[in-house]
Amino acid sequence: MNIGILGTGSVGQTLGTKLLTLGHKVKLGSRTAGNEKAQAWVSAAGSGASAGTFAEAAQFADLVIIATLGTGTVEAVQQAGPDNLAGKTVIDVTNPLDFSQGMPPRLFVGHTDSLAEQVQRAAPAAHVVKALNIISAPQMVDPASSGGDPDMFIAGNHEGARQQVTELLQSFGWQHITDFGGLEAARFIEPLVLLWVNYGMKSGGWQHALKFLKK
Ligand SMILES: NC(=O)c1ccc[n+]([C@@H]2O[C@H](COP(=O)([O-])OP(=O)(O)OC[C@H]3O[C@@H](n4cnc5c(N)ncnc54)[C@H](OP(=O)(O)O)[C@@H]3O)[C@@H](O)[C@H]2O)c1
């Protein structure tokens, strides 16, 4: 597939590099063309890697991943252009974290709404799926490096998109993916990041992950 990633941070770069190794083509998007971090990633990543604006990444893509700063996420979707996202699976990896009062962060939206639903409202014809927001970037593409066999939670309104995301995560090595159905479940998946950050602050490590047992 052609995959457009909105975001040039550690998540965007880590997912981009993994997707290239799986044979996909990846365009990393940022607010401005010629972004230095994106250009450096392209030089290091080699064949199949390219960079552009958020809109260029979205236009290029069969599937889009949003990996932007939480507070800039809706703005990034607007810059990408809702029409460029229409009919496409859009994986939302972001977290609605507010660091304005220091650590630990708080959520700037939650419980009766979610950042994923804000993304969906900003791009109504996109098939938004929440995924991968509750784990560090290196473990997103190597779940076993968390020290076991963790679970990932996904939610989205389009069943076919949830299935496509499940298969993509399986190609990253995820064996246990729980599908929570409609995107409203992102209201409960997003706050789990606070639990994950809390343990990271106490333990000083960031490789931990969640396990969800069910019959
Ligand atoms: N880091 C992790 O391990 C991890 C794990 C799970 C989830 N997440 C979530 O994944 C997302 C990405 O995290 P990250 O650490 O890779 O990168 P980040 O530093 O949170 O975000 C970097 C990206 O956000 C864009 N951005 C910043 N302000 C913006 C604004 N006002 N409008 C539009 N775009 C803006 C930047 O654009 P430019 O390229 O133009 O500078 C850049 O591409 C976050 O929401 C984070 O909570 C991160």
Can you offer a commentary on this structure?
The protein is an alpha/beta fold and 215 residues long. The protein has helices at 10-21, 36-45, 54-60, 73-80, 82-85, 115-122, 137-140, 159-172, 186-189, 192-203; strands at residues 2-6, 25-30, 49-53, 63-66, 89-92, 97-98, 106-107, 127-130, 151-156, 176-179. Helix 3 (54-60) crosses helix 4 (73-80) and helix 4 runs parallel beside helix 6 (115-122). It is globular. It binds NADP nicotinamide-adenine-dinucleotide phosphate (NAP). Residues 7-12, 30-32, 35, 67-70, 72, 75-76, 93-95, 97, 133, 136-137 line the site of NADP nicotinamide-adenine-dinucleotide phosphate.
**What oligomeric state do the depicted chains represent?**
single chain
> Strand fraction band?
15-25%
Ligands bound to this protein structure: NADP nicotinamide-adenine-dinucleotide phosphate
Rounded mean pLDDT is 97
Q: Structural class of the helix and strand makeup? A: alpha/beta
CA distance, first residue to last residue: 34 Å
Instruction: Flag low-confidence runs.
Output: none
Number of helices: 10
The shape, in one word, is: globular
